[in-house]
Design brief:
With 277 residues, this protein is of the alpha+beta class. It has two domains: 179 residues, Nucleoside Triphosphate Pyrophosphohydrolase (Alpha-Beta Complex); 56 residues, Winged helix-like DNA-binding domain superfamily/Winged helix DNA-binding domain (Arc Repressor Mutant, subunit A). 20% of the residues lie in helices and 36% in strands. β12 and β13 form a beta hairpin. The two termini are 42 Å apart.
């Protein structure tokens, strides 16, 4: 079979040999991870932030992440960054969004692939700052239709954004999204506020369509605590009977009881029932 040639008469091998990547401007690519867990008392979600110790955005809080190396995929990079910066591995990790505004990084053209990671609430790892961070901490998340607030009493920091609804035309469809606008002295670096907002909104939708919320609970849990996790994510109270009916096919009883974190009376303990493909 004859090799195909282009308009210049070159085979693919000849074309690649003569190809000069330096003739074209190329963006750098990074990953950032919105790492989420439930607070120990199940009162709210928390996310891990690091405080930058170098330019740009020196002194600002940011999501953990870094540049993708040439021999790894974006997912492999996210896993590596998580392990290097937090010691966390083997968790639920899902690609969230590609941040690509040309001016999002003042150093150069940088495209960012963001991820959401979920940690069970029995894994309360302390935040540790890596080599490129001045500090690190777990921040409580308050998320309503009007505001997002990330706060740490330990660090004496409160980062707050007002959410403004804006309409965008996409073909014949009008899409309504929220845009975060800083209303506090402290703010997140780069466009990380948009990643946080996108991640929380996607999680709120995804728990209604999948079992991803089970990644936020331990292997063994009570239904009152599981319901509390769903309520925090969804931002609303749920009816106990309806919730138990919905979870009936997803959980398996372990035939002993324990005291829930979110209640005073003992309750049956369950585990997640692996779903058949």
């Amino acid at each position: 079979m004859l090799e195909k040639r282009n308009a210049d008469g070159l085979t693919e091998e000849e074309f690649l040999k003569a190809y000069r990547p330096g003739d074209y401007e190329r963006p750098s690519v990074t990953v950032d991870i919105l790492l989420l867990r439930m607070k120990k008392d199940l009162s709210c979600l928390q996310t891990l932030l690091i405080r930058r110790k170098n330019h740009p955005y020196i002194g600002c809080w940011a999501l953990p992440g870094g540049f993708i190396e040439m021999d790894e995929s974006a997912y492999e990079s996210a896993c590596r960054e998580l392990k290097e910066e937090t010691g966390i591995e083997g968790i639920y990790l899902e690609q969230l969004y590609t941040m690509n505004q040309p001016d999002r990084d003042p150093r150069m053209r940088v495209i960012d692939i963001s991820y959401t990671g979920l940690i069970p609430y029995d894994d309360q790892k302390e935040a540790e700052a890596g080599d490129d961070a001045e500090d690190a901490g777990w921040f409580d998340i308050s998320f309503t239709k009007e505001r997002i607030r990330l706060s740490s009493s330990e660090k004496n920091v409160s980062i707050e954004y007002a959410l403004t609804e804006k309409a965008f035309q996409n073909g014949i469809i009008v899409v309504r999204n929220y845009v975060p606008e800083s209303v506090s002295e402290d703010r997140l670096a780069f466009d990380h506020s948009e990643i946080v907002l996108e991640g929380l909104m996607k999680l709120r939708n995804k728990v209604l369509l999948s079992d991803c919320a089970f990644n936020l609970v331990p292997k063994e849990f009570t239904l009152p605590d599981l319901q509390k996790v769903y309520e925090i994510i969804l931002g609303t109270d749920l009816y106990k009977a309806n919730f138990r009916d919905k979870m009936a096919s997803k959980v398996e009883a372990l035939h002993y009881v324990a005291k829930p974190i979110s209640g005073n009376r003992v309750a049956n303990v369950y585990k997640y029932k692996e779903q058949q493909a």
